[in-house]
Predict the 3D structure of the following.
Amino acid sequence: MTAPDRIVICGAGAIGAATAYFLTRRGARPVLVDRARPAAAASGKAAGFLALDWNTGTPLDGLARESFALHRALADELGAERLGHRPMDALMTAAADAGDLERYRRLPNPGWLDGNVVAHEVIGGPATTAQVDPRAFTTTLAEEAVAAGAELVTGVVDGLVLDEASGAVRGVSIDGEVRDADAVVLALGPWTPQAQRWIPLPQVFGTKSASVVLGADAPAQAVFSEYVAGDGRRSTIEIYPRAGGTVYISGHPEHGTLPDDPGEIAPTDAAVGELRRIAGVHSAALGDAELVAATACYRPLTVDGVPLIGPVPGVPGAIIATGHASWGILNSPATGRMVSEMLLDGRSTSLDATPFDPARLPAGRIAG
Ligand SMILES: Cc1cc2nc3c(=O)[nH]c(=O)nc-3n(C[C@H](O)[C@H](O)[C@H](O)COP(=O)(O)OP(=O)(O)OC[C@H]3O[C@@H](n4cnc5c(N)ncnc54)[C@H](O)[C@@H]3O)c2cc1C
């Protein structure tokens, strides 16, 4: 097999940016296209939490372990501060608007958790849990790829040009203008259904969550809190202190149709207010903290919960890489490296790609 010369990567989230990065490490010069900019969607708004072994026993285990190690290697190579990479502890807690929680306590609370919350279990430490700043991580990989010869293009991918006889990829239409291509990588996250207008693909959909970033200092301790509201509703609230005096809080699922433009994705005022209030239930400092950012994003999901990483059946030259759900920041480096190997070596050499083969799921097209 001859490695393709002209590779177009559609979507500059963590998956597209990591693919561009690993391709350029091998001397390829891909085109990376995004309708907005790198990290415009979930890859700029996620928590950025990384875990070595929280996917044990699932098809994602190897991908997660390789990726966790690659995150550390990237931090060594590109600078931990630049990526916002740091090891952290992880703690499970129970919290509630009202009522005595002492029967759930197994550990003393860290000092900053001074609300109606009790520490229950340590679930990660510096060897197994870490974080990156997802926006810094994604934009740095895209910048490094560009510095090594990739071309970053701002534009809407609106079609593929396929060879009439073989069905193979011949070009990518960007804002109506065709770029010749021997290979295309579809890394469109929850916007993958747009590409189902051009070729048959397995179903990918997005689930929305709100998050807030508050200005407060807290130690490097991620908190996963089983929270009971005053009306009895239960949810898991996730609290991630970041370097530089901010704390990211998520855990509020929302509903809403995915707009074409990631800039139009916003949380509801109710979700933002609720997250701030619940933060205050955990910590007085968080309750008083200023709101630095209020965001929302969509996780890309497949029907079986396993990402799609591999060739699109029946469309030579097309590779899909998406559906990473809640672990797309963690799993982006090993995914990008696998896709670069599929393109340059004809198959993934670093990891067994079988669990992620798009051919395992039925594929369909959307009319229009
Ligand atoms: C609240 C929240 C918290 C999360 N926390 C974590 C976490 O702690 N750890 C973790 O590992 N994961 C986390 N995730 C999951 C993670 O954010 C996603 O899995 C990951 O960002 C998906 O990356 P992606 O590159 O596939 O897609 P995206 O980041 O969605 O990127 C897709 C890109 O495609 C572009 N695009 C779309 N259509 C077109 C088009 N027609 N033409 C050109 N460009 C187009 C968009 O502009 C976008 O930039 C979280 C997600 C959410 C919502």
